[in-house]
Write a structure and sequence with these properties.
Elements lengths: L16 E2 L15 E4 H4 L5 E8 L10 E2 L4 E7 L1 E6 L2 E6 L3 E4 L8 E3 L6 E8 L6 E3 L4 E6 L2 E5 L7
Length: 157
């Protein structure tokens, strides 16, 4: 195969980012998660696109919801369990899920299968988005122009 030229891209050429920026101990369930930031690699500024690999037993995130940003997930390969308020559903290749901004129904995906799951994540980049984590003592707020992880009482990690 010949080398692709912009605006095309082979996702394998984008370096994967492993884990998350979560504070300890919330970083552990997502430590083996890999994201390739395809949108950034292609210079997209209005929305982000990530190709995520979840090995067996790994979660996409802590259960969360966004105040201002929409999220969309498409299962490319494998299967994951989508966990929302009181509901667990298995999503397999070809299935999708969407999470509108401001809907206070936290979500996360966990790979409970024995093989890798590959997901395409799409989210907008609305400024000053806040993230709430209903199951754990964590939230994201903007302070002095930076996103900060805080305890629910507002103290920083």
């Amino acid at each position: 195969m010949s080398k692709l030229e912009s605006p095309a891209l082979d996702p394998a050429t984008v370096e994967p980012l492993r884990g998350s920026e979560y504070p300890d101990p919330f970083d552990k369930p997502v430590a083996a998660r890999e994201r390739r930031k395809l949108g950034d690699a292609l210079g997209l500024t209005n929305f982000g696109v990530n190709l995520m690999r979840l090995p067996s037993g790994v979660a996409s995130s802590m259960r969360h919801w966004h105040s201002k940003q929409d999220e969309f997930v498409f299962v490319v390969a494998g299967e994951v369990v989508l966990i929302t308020d009181g509901v667990e559903q298995t999503l397999t290749a070809g299935m999708a899920a969407g999470f509108p901004a401001g809907r206070q129904d936290g979500h996360r995906l966990i790979n409970r299968s024995q093989r890798d799951a590959i997901l395409l994540e799409v989210g907008d980049r609305t400024a000053l988005d806040e993230v709430n984590y209903p199951d754990v003592d964590m939230m994201v707020r903007w302070i002095d122009g930076e996103e900060k992880y805080l305890h629910r009482d507002g103290t920083p990690y």
